[in-house]
Amino acid sequence: MTAVPGNEKSPIAMELARKQKSISVAEFFEKNRHMLGFDSLPRCLITCIKEAVDNSLDACEEASILPDIYIRVRKVDDRLVSIIIEDNGPGIQKDVLPRVFGKLLYGSRFHAIRQSRGQQGIGISAAVLYGQLTSGKPARITSKIDPRLPAYMYELKIDTETNEPRIISERVDEFFTSRGTRIELEMEAAYVRGKQSVLEYLRNTAIVNPHARITFVDPLGEKTTFERASDVLPKQPVEIKPHPRGIELGTLIKMMQSAEHGKLSTFLNSEFAKVGGYTAENICKEASIDPSADPVELAKDIDAVKRLMAAFQKIKVMAPPKDCLSPITEDLLKKGVVQNHRVDFIATSSRPVNASRGNPFLVEALIAYGGDIQPEGRIDIVRFANRVPLMYQQGACAITHAIERINWKHYNLEQSKGAKLPSGPIMIMVHVASTNVPFTSESKDAIADVPELIDEVELAVRQAARELSRFLSEQKKAGEARKKIKLFEAYTKEVAQALEDLTGKPASVVEAKLTDALNKKYAKFIEDAALPETPVKDGGA
Amino acid sequence: MTAVPGNEKSPIAMELARKQKSISVAEFFEKNRHMLGFDSLPRCLITCIKEAVDNSLDACEEASILPDIYIRVRKVDDRLVSIIIEDNGPGIQKDVLPRVFGKLLYGSRFHAIRQSRGQQGIGISAAVLYGQLTSGKPARITSKIDPRLPAYMYELKIDTETNEPRIISERVDEFFTSRGTRIELEMEAAYVRGKQSVLEYLRNTAIVNPHARITFVDPLGEKTTFERASDVLPKQPVEIKPHPRGIELGTLIKMMQSAEHGKLSTFLNSEFAKVGGYTAENICKEASIDPSADPVELAKDIDAVKRLMAAFQKIKVMAPPKDCLSPITEDLLKKGVVQNHRVDFIATSSRPVNASRGNPFLVEALIAYGGDIQPEGRIDIVRFANRVPLMYQQGACAITHAIERINWKHYNLEQSKGAKLPSGPIMIMVHVASTNVPFTSESKDAIADVPELIDEVELAVRQAARELSRFLSEQKKAGEARKKIKLFEAYTKEVAQALEDLTGKPASVVEAKLTDALNKKYAKFIEDAALPETPVKDGGA
């Protein structure tokens, strides 16, 4: 141990203070790029494409355009790939474009309370950051906002020390369609096949976005197109006010501080979803606060704000509105699975809108069984959040944790001792739609263990599991009935002969009667239960 | 579908552009506080304490002070708890204090390449942010940097729109010791017992920081003290230059751009760890670049930089220095386990320093078996990163994933079909020490799946597992030998009698000879193998 520095002239604290400095968010994420989904080489490729496709889909929907997205990946050398993602979206206006792609925490959807894929204003600039870090090259973005205007091209990098875009070059450019955006990047990444691949990500994206047409050209030049399955755009989610249930004290104080209305009751009525004039009065009464009190003044009195919070929980406020969300719908979930799999059974469920920390959300689930679903190994869990497939971090996700909380033996499924999941040919699909999906990290691959959310996922999965359980139990009964019939059939002849000997009735007559009785007794089971040979049994809806 | 907006006067892009805006990092994390470890109520409490204790331990070590840390949790009401964390560290100088606690991404350890607990300059300000969000109250921080100077107290909040501290009040204050920092917070949180509890976190912290004295007072006023097990401070990790192996192209370009030396060889020699003059010349030769070339000019030629990168991989450079790391050591890991458990077997391993993306790291592992370790349910995985216990997100962690990659049947352990982990009374402890631990998120609870890192964890665990496998195989042999002896013993008398009848030799003599032969044959197994009744068998080192 060295000398205690407090006894010296200058306290060690002064020495330490000199090292304190601000860290730019770009520097932070350059060092922690794995938090953004840039860790292994195959994941880097998927993350980049995912961020670009998310943006394209969001922008197309906001502009009521049926999305047409083109993705191409090419090998540059042993280490680097080049990626192009192009859409037919509304385009990005010249003066904001450099920041959209060249500044982290810059975006249009962060403050809006409605379902969207992108929320953080990080994703695509993270891809630009990772690209320049590993290839040393700028990103090239071309965008055209109107058929009557020329397209514009920027080559840009992110200045990590300031988190501002640095424009390398810019010019008026060609763009082959009337409107859209193209991004070209070079980065260290790897193209792989299999479960965690670009193709699989795009296939799942197509399932939950049937209004999109997606074309992919792989490094060997092979082209895959996921054609549009529907020409109807999903209903555009509506932006809403925060719901009083689940709002945080600090957020409420901030809202009150910037209130423009002189009266608390008016403030409540106009700034919150589902709070009408009558409810507002009731809340004030419950909190023992004068409805005409000034919110800005009131914000200084923490006890009053706390009473207001308590009243939010006590006074009945209608559930948050559903139109800020855009569920996939049970029908579409089912269609997506049936298009890609042959299954023996399928059930879906959909939960009502709930709220967590003031954010409305809802859960949809699907369970499929049998058919071509692999019976060996880990069961298939397919996760979606706001119509985006979640490809990584399954073990860290609230969806997985909710499924693991269920005792699957109660649902007629096998579950080994100590195993958290059931075994067998099962696929569980869950979609969480929310105005603010609580992802565990900026890479948006796993949903955090928020209690209300896990509960809802569990309820949704259980609901579908009950249908499956019934199906399996019927199947079991039918199987047993068949066994009994077979056993019986094997002895009918002898029994009939014995009865002929005893009663004198001809064996053929006795045999016919016996077979008839047997069929009557077990017909129910055999007809009710869908057996593996029969077509899909729809347990849902 | 509404009308296509491109046909209207103003393109939709202009409408969308108006919504684009910057998001402050504080706003971002206020909305995404779960990314910082503030999700469930019990976790919020642990996260807050963990961030404060991390800071205290780092600061004490930087100032060569044996840490003495006091933590108290009290219930305020049904929703809120108040938390105090106080240390005897060097204190924080008045002019930097508000930003240390009231600004995210502000710190002293972000740019330094050496092992430390805090790296990001986010942790403690995240606790302040969460506190003000849920309690509406400011954090109160008191610090004293020198016995001869007065202590100073600040009450502060974070202005989330600007990510700057807002000072609510400040004054000269009392502080009961000669030096140190105290933080007082109020927040929504819950105190629980069990595996994921404050007490368990502190116990594990004490195990890997035996030089610290930690006192905890729980909400019932019950006091627990983890006394110092050692009066020796761990060797302070030394700050180093980046290692050429694993550095990224973009980082290299940035370094070259700000090079102050006119010559490439001098730049390589002075800015990288383990690159001497001779190695620098070799690198230049391999890259076909003139050693006297100007790095700043060279940075503009991407092909040259790429050749330099390739040369970094080809030319042999010594492994990164170890003194930037502070391993727990195998001995201390073992001591920690033995102090808290009775076990039948224990083995440790420690891997040499490796580098990932230019960051030196090393892995230490321990496997304990039998004794009071629970044989039922999931096996115990105890994870540490830079001497900090990782309490949450086990399923998302590279340590867990590395353990899951191992086929445990090869190591004489049971592993059910489909199970990722072995079963039985097993505890696996892993410590990753790194100059930059790649956490999956800002909450620092799980390590990202960086390939080099998973590989090293797997190697370390396998090394200890081989010892365990030997022990289990010996134990099995000894068990079988005992069975045989018992079987033999049961018949010795009869055999001896039969032999007496046949040969005329007295049964007692024959019996003694038989017993003797038996003992000789099986002695080896019985002595070698430690059986459950025997004391700890140390398989490591």
UniProtKB/TrEMBL annotation, chains A, B:
Keyword ATP-binding carried by entry: yes
An example Gene Ontology biological process: DNA replication
Sorted UniProt keywords: ATP-binding, DNA-binding, Isomerase, Nucleotide-binding, Topoisomerase
Highest taxon, organism lineage: Archaea
Gene3D superfamilies on file: 1.10.8.50, 3.30.230.10, Histidine kinase-like ATPase, C-terminal domain
Catalytic activity from the UniProt record: ATP-dependent breakage, passage and rejoining of double-stranded DNA
Subunit structure: Homodimer. Heterotetramer of two Top6A and two Top6B chains.
Family statement drawn from the similarity comment of this UniProt entry: Belongs to the TOP6B family.
Protein name: Type 2 DNA topoisomerase 6 subunit B
The organism of origin for this protein: Methanocella arvoryzae (strain DSM 22066 / NBRC 105507 / MRE50)
Name of the encoding gene: top6B-1
